UniProtKB/TrEMBL annotation:
Domain Protein kinase intervals: 427-703
Stated name of the protein: Wall-associated receptor kinase-like 3
SMART domains: S_TKc (SM00220)
Keyword Nucleotide-binding found: yes
Length: 744
């Protein structure tokens, strides 16, 4: 192979791909786009009637407010004749012409949802695509019927199963059903009916809904079927047809394929005399504009030349190679025809002498280029893997939250995976700070010297991804000195990573259970920690822009900084609610010993559920005991709830028998009694009778003030601090929590 040919080949491989000037898509002086949607003729934007073929192809470009900001308006195209939002237009694809539009979802017995049927397209040039759409009905124990203007065309049914995580593309008759459209009928109108199967219907009375939807969107959309009920519309593909009897005269002179490569042509198909216009193979442009089509340069895209030199010509391209002094050519047409190799001698005898030198240089260049290609492919593979991990680890969900304005973008940094691996010595075991239900926490040092804590999920669990993204969203909204601050996250690794400020002195649970004589947990420290926790919870409930329920308050989730100030952490199962909400109905989450009995029974989590959990932490600070502990001296293995044991001790007037020795040493009986009574009120089985965290904070601050030297113990007002028997404070034994999974 000649050295010049090889250099030309390498130059073509490494040359950046450029595109020719775009061919016109609309008539002169007509708008070509509405928002980011291209509008090619015969479609057009009014009011100039010359911009579109007829009324059916008129586009109404409307202004709508953005979902992220009421002050930001965006343009959205609508097919004016049928009042459907337009997503995109295809002039010619697989011998068909189509548009993608948003079609309504049909809801049945769904609160706040209107029952709307698929749009009736009768009389228009639009029909529902037989090849691109499918029929879906969601809910269990149902029978769904799809009726067209030709009668009943499809029926499907579903059965019930305790599975609410059905993914798109996996609807097999459990909690939903799916059926493709018939290939033999062209339909412009559909109606949907759903009936419940009384023997297998959903006992919860879940709402039922059905819809026609684009099959490709269904396959690649990452949401689950039940999330569609939060939408009003889904994408549907409509084929559009031009009748040759009506429009053939307008495009006269183009009904036969011309020998001129740049001349578009129109053909009629099927017994309906449907007319489709297209450019010649290898050409591009809008055939309905009555203008010449432009050549596509295949040498700048995918072609069959491989390592040979590519040369473009109108309607195709040629591949050139030099073999032992012979120049060989193979011609390829865009229509799929491939010519034979034709070779001719082009060199002189002297070229044989320099062939060896050429071959050596060529080999060197090939090796260099091979190394470059290997490096390029490796980098592209790494980028592709990072994109895959980003999507799998909830990146799309985080982007949705970012666009909705729920996340403080200034507080969230997307860290590079290499930086976090380096900061933790590749997540070494000796860097582990702790492990919990949400993952493992490592200590790391960033390049700028900052010490951080990095939470790494144990495995890729789709059910946990929402909790991970939820923690990012919740923490980004909180600015409080007693709440751990988020710094950012990394989603481009195999498992997601969350980065937040490093808190050096471990958890409150460790500090209570592992006390040392050199640095005891004094009464003043306990009061300070309790007041800080209460203040942070009061802020979450009342001071944040939206009320936030932590849902897992426990001493293991309270961190202590370098000055032993408390910081609440682990917001994986936390939830923010609207201001007018009073509770949150969810599947029961929590931790043994801290779980609100009222929440356990009703599945309704309120701010008073956090108060109950705080009460258990307060009792831990008073007694130094674990929330759940084994009963000594028992023949069978039994466990005792600290909350129940504390309430019983209060009722029997022996609370000072279980108070920690350090507390008895440092605190006065009056102060201890006040805090004990406060803890008792927080542990009241009736949530309405528990104090709000704002009230708890005030009472703890009052006890702290009484500890100041300027106020003597005899000046303290202990009125109302004596224990009063309350029938609402009953026993809640740990055995009654046996139905809750130990993983909570």
């Amino acid at each position: 192979m000649n050295i010049i040919s090889i250099i030309l080949l390498l130059w073509r491989i490494n040359l950046p791909t450029t595109s020719a000037a775009s061919a016109p898509i609309a008539k002169p002086n007509c708008t070509t786009h509405c928002g980011d949607v291209a509008i090619p003729y015969p479609f057009g934007i009014g009011p100039n009637k010359d911009c579109y073929l007829d009324k059916w192809f008129q586009i109404d470009c409307r202004h709508t407010n953005s979902t992220t900001s009421a002050n930001y308006s965006r343009q959205v195209p609508f097919l004016k004749s049928v009042n459907l939002e337009l997503l995109n237009i295809s002039l010619f694809k697989n011998d068909r012409q189509s548009v993608r539009v948003k079609n309504p979802i049909t809801f049945f017995s769904c609160e706040g949802k209107e029952t709307r049927q698929p749009q009736n397209l009768t009389g228009s040039p639009f029909i529902y695509s037989q090849t691109d759409n499918t029929f879906i009905a969601v809910s269990c124990g149902l029978s769904a019927t799809l009726t067209s203007d030709h009668g009943t065309v499809r029926e499907c049914g579903s059965i019930c199963q305790n599975n609410t995580n059905s993914d798109f593309g996996n609807c097999h008759g459990i909690d939903c059903c799916e059926d493709i459209l018939p290939k033999a009928e062209l339909s412009s109108a559909f109606s949907i009916k759903i009936q419940s199967n009384s023997s297998t219907s959903d006992p919860k009375g879940d709402c039922k809904y059905a819809f026609l939807v684009e099959e490709d969107w269904l396959m690649f959309n990452s949401s689950n079927f039940r999330d569609v009920k939060h939408m009003d519309n889904v994408p549907v593909v409509l084929d559009w047809i031009l009748n040759a009897h009506d429009y053939g005269e307008r495009f006269r002179g183009k009904t036969d394929q011309s020998g001129n490569q740049s001349t578009p042509f129109c053909n009629s198909y099927d017994d309906r005399n449907t007319m489709i216009c297209a450019c010649q193979p290898g050409m591009e442009g809008n055939p309905y504009l009555l203008q010449p089509c432009q050549d596509i340069d295949e040498c700048k895209g995918s072609n069959e030349c491989g390592g040979d030199v590519c040369e473009n010509f109108a309607g195709g391209y040629s591949c050139y190679s030099n073999i032992n002094g012979l120049r060989c050519t193979q011609r390829h047409s865009a229509g799929g025809k491939t010519g034979t190799y034709k070779c001719h001698f082009f060199g002189r005898a002297s070229e044989i002498i320099i062939l060896g030198l050429d071959s050596g240089v060529a080999l060197l260049l090939l090796l260099i280029n091979a190394w470059w290609v290997h490096k390029f492919l490796k980098k592209r593979k790494t980028i592709a893997r990072k994109k895959m991990f980003f999507k799998r680890n909830g990146g799309l969900l985080l982007e949705q939250q970012l666009s909705s304005g729920k996340v403080n973008v200034d507080k969230i940094k997307l860290f590079d995976s290499k930086e976090l691996e380096k900061s933790t010595n590749n997540f070494s075991i000796d860097r582990i700070l702790g492990q919990g239900g949400q993952g493992t926490v490592y200590k790391g040092m960033l390049a700028d010297g900052r010490i951080v804590a990095i939470k790494k999920s144990e495995k890729v669990d789709k059910s946990k991804l929402s909790e991970f993204i939820n923690e990012v969203v919740i923490l980004s909204q909180i600015i409080h000195r007693n709440v751990v601050q988020i710094m950012g996250c990394c989603l481009e690794t195999e498992v997601p990573l969350l980065v937040y400020e490093f808190i050096p002195n471990g958890t409150l649970s460790q500090f209570i259970q592992e006390q040392i004589e050199e640095f005891p947990l004094t009464w003043d420290m306990r009061l300070q920690i309790a007041t800080e926790i209460a203040g942070a919870l009061s802020y979450l409930h009342n001071g944040a822009s939206f009320p936030i329920y932590h849902r897992d308050i426990k001493s293991a989730n309270i961190l202590l900084d370098e000055k032993y100030r408390a910081k609440i952490a682990d917001f994986g199962i936390s939830r923010s609610i609207s201001i007018d909400q009073t509770h949150l109905t969810t599947r029961v989450h929590g931790t043994f010993g801290y779980l609100d009995p009222e929440y356990f029974q009703s599945s309704q989590f309120t701010e008073k559920s956090d108060v109950y959990s705080f009460g258990v932490v307060l009792v831990e600070l008073l007694t130094g005991q674990k929330p759940i502990s084994a009963v000594t001296g028992s023949e069978e293995e039994e466990y005792r709830s600290l909350a129940t044991y504390f309430i019983t001790s209060m009722q029997e007037d022996r609370v000072f028998n279980i108070v920690d020795a350090q507390v008895l040493k440092d605190g006065s009986e009056t102060q201890i009694q006040v805090v004990a009574n406060l803890a008792r009120r927080c542990l009241n089985l009736n949530g309405r009778s528990r104090p709000a965290m704002r009230e708890v904070t005030s009472e703890l601050e009052a006890v702290q003030m009484s500890r100041k030297p300027s106020i003597s113990d005899d000046q303290q007002n202990s009125e109302g601090d004596d224990f009063v028997e309350d029938d609402a404070v009953g026993h809640w034994d740990v055995e009654s929590l046996s139905e809750v999974s130990a993983s909570y």
